[in-house]
Amino acid sequence: MQVSSHLPRLFRNWRKKSASVDAQRTLLQYLHKLYQTGLAAAAEFADLQVSLYAEFDRKHLMPFLVGSHHYHLDTALKTCKRFRCVRENVYILNRMGNPEAALSMILNHIDNEMSIEDALEFVKEQRDKDLWEFLIEHSLQSPSLVSQLLDHVGGVDAVNPLQLLERIPPGMHIPHLRDKVIRIIADYRTQLTLCSGASQILRRDCVALSARYLSQAQVGIHVGARYFQEEAVNFLHCNMKCSICLGALCQKEVVIFYCAHGYHLDCLSEFAPSGGQSTSLKGCIVCNATVGRSR
Fold first, then answer.
1. In what order do the strands lie in the sheet with 221-223?
2. pLDDT band, residue 294 (cuts 50/70/90)
3. Degrees, nearest 5: CA angle 105-148-124
4. What angle do CA 15, 72, 82 make, to 5 degrees?
């Protein structure tokens, strides 16, 4: 049977007759199986599926809202409000481009279905300074929210704990404020220590990598005579000359440094350390001589 051809008529007839809870659950199971198999035939019933999930199977509602794009956002929002699905409401509001309303809903349901951790995580994901300001302004209206915010704000880069403390209204009683301030200062010192240590490690790595790069750059590149025979010699090769004998570099084994000075291998052997190879020289002879004179 072709599901796509029979599904609309089947569901229209079923919805007319299915007033019982059992029929509703059976309908939801059928739609859920279709969604799991990836069939798009039930796409036009996505709004109905949202309603059935909200009423009978709340645990599958959020995965469906995240994974499906066939339902209407405004209809889903009304459904979630009707069945008081707070987290799903927050998700839909944010998806509709209204993060401030989503954050407001989180804050209005703290100590119920949401927590201050949910609010902080939501604001972190948005990366919006205005949302941080909205969160702080809303929290300053309640000693309980200020207390919870102080417990978690120490590790948040976007919020300065000292500025938050300065904005607490005079006379507002914050439970265990002294302990919270001590913990914030301790966290701040820990962050400074970690940043200082990471900075030192980074500087050492930069120095080590720079020294390694310089050491490798000072070593010449050996180019065999076969290269000139097998590869087409371009204008640059033909015009390059040995910096010792001033002869053309073509047709001989050469050593070329990153400074663009080149040498015949046999010419360079005179300057190689005793028992060493010409390619083991550290640095170009001409450049080293120039640096020596400049000193």
1. 221-223, 254-256, 262-264
2. very low
3. 60
4. 70
**Secondary structure letter of residue 270 according to DSSP:** G
Alpha helices in the chain (DSSP H): 3-17, 21-37, 46-56, 61-67, 73-82, 86-95, 99-108, 116-126, 129-139, 143-152, 161-166, 177-218, 225-230, 235-239, 265-268, 285-294
The tokens for 139 are 């929290």
Crossing angle of the two packed helices 46-56 and 73-82, in degrees rounded to 10: 20
Label residue 45 exposed, middle or buried (CB < 10 Å: 0-12, 13-18, 19+).
buried
What digits encode the pLDDT tens for the residues 152-207?
876 666 677 777 888 888 889 988 888 988 888 888 888 889 999 999 999 999 99
Within 13 A of 210's CA, how many CA atoms are on the CB side?
A: 6
3-state secondary structure of 241: strand
HSE of 66, CA atoms in CB hemisphere, 13 A: 9
Q: How far apart are CA 100 and CA 198, in angstroms?
A: 36
Please name the residues in contact with 242: beta carbons below 8 A apart, sequence gap of 6 or more: 248, 249, 254, 262, 263, 264, 267
Is the entire prediction scored with pTM above 0.85? no
HSE-up (13 A, CA, CB side) for residue 266: 7
Q: What token pair was written down for 197? A: 């240590």
